[in-house]
Amino acid sequence: MQRAKAICFDLLAARPRTKDELRQALRRKGFDEDTRETLLGKLDDAGLVDDAAFAEMWVRSRHTHQGLARTALVAELRRKGVDGAVAARAAEAVDRDAEEQRARELVRKRLRALGGVDEQTAIRRLLGTLGRKGYPQGLAYRVVRDELAAAGADTTPLDDAPPD
Prior knowledge:
The protein has 9 helices and no strands. It has helices at residues 2-14, 19-28, 33-45, 51-66, 70-79, 84-91, 96-114, 119-132, 137-150.
């Protein structure tokens, strides 16, 4: 049990972890289920492992620094073993306005990097960037159309965009 505890503490010292991440690490190290669950229960009781707090921190960080949309954030949290309801509640911290603002920032930054590509290529790349980050299609089309128009481009190909 001491060795399992030391492994968990080492992992938690590097960064916050979900219960499932610790459970998988202990499983890989060969600890039986009783040991894993007993230790995780103790860590939870001590407040050292809290999936809800982890999810809130993860959402704030990944939205701010990576520009991920709510759907992508929920998907990442689910892959980390966070319950779907907990992940959805944490992602609610990113409201539609904040999500749209972050999408606009991403498009502006990407526009600067695109240089002299033709308009169709720029549209495709910008929509791809937002799509990979989990932004809804309607929002992505609207943001790209608006930002291209603000940059002085003709956005007629985007006028038939799907709604949010």
